[in-house]
Design goal:
Order of helices and strands: HEEEEEEEH
Helix content: 25-40%
Structural class: alpha+beta
Strand order of the largest sheet: 4-3-2-1-7-6-5
Shape: elongated
Number of helices: 2
Number of strands: 7
Radius of gyration: 25 Å
Strand content: 25-35%
């Protein structure tokens, strides 16, 4: 009887510790996961016109712009710089590792361009805190052989 109580107590303690660890891990993952969404206009040119408006979303380490006729998707680890645009008024530029530049303007509730300052700060913080990309090793195999056919 005493051994049975001890086994049950050990099982309950182990179960409680496992559940506590799982809850802690989930809470940490949620606190690091940045999510945001804005109405925005975007283009790969320095001109932002009214026909390029759509939704800019930051979710699961990816910055995405979607509209009816134009869209793009960039992993935060592929972004090299986010800064205010000197070419387009009230806009910012997202530059990628490959050299692509995307101009983005944040829209306010009246669908006019708003100041992008807070958005830039949030995106810069998300890029800084993004986990590094793990490059997986590749294996190159060369088959040896002879070209002498005698």
């Amino acid at each position: 009887m005493n051994a049975n109580k001890f086994a049950r107590w050990t099982f309950n303690l182990t179960l409680a510790l496992v559940l506590l660890a799982a809850a802690s891990t989930t809470a940490q993952a949620q606190s690091r996961d940045t999510r945001a969404s804005w109405m925005a206009a975007s283009s790969n040119q320095a001109e932002l016109t009214g026909n390029t408006w759509g939704r800019l979303t930051l979710l699961d380490g990816v910055l995405t712009f979607q509209s009816s006729n134009y869209s793009w998707r960039i992993a935060l680890t592929e972004i090299t710089r986010i800064q205010s645009s000197k070419e387009a008024a009230r806009a910012f530029v997202v530059e990628t590792v490959s050299g692509q530049r995307y101009y983005v303007g944040i829209m306010d509730s009246t669908m006019t361009m708003a100041s992008p300052g807070k958005t830039i700060q949030m995106l810069q913080r998300a890029v800084r805190e993004a986990p590094p990309t793990i490059s997986r090793p590749t294996m190159v195999a060369a088959a040896g052989g002879s070209s002498d056919d005698k």
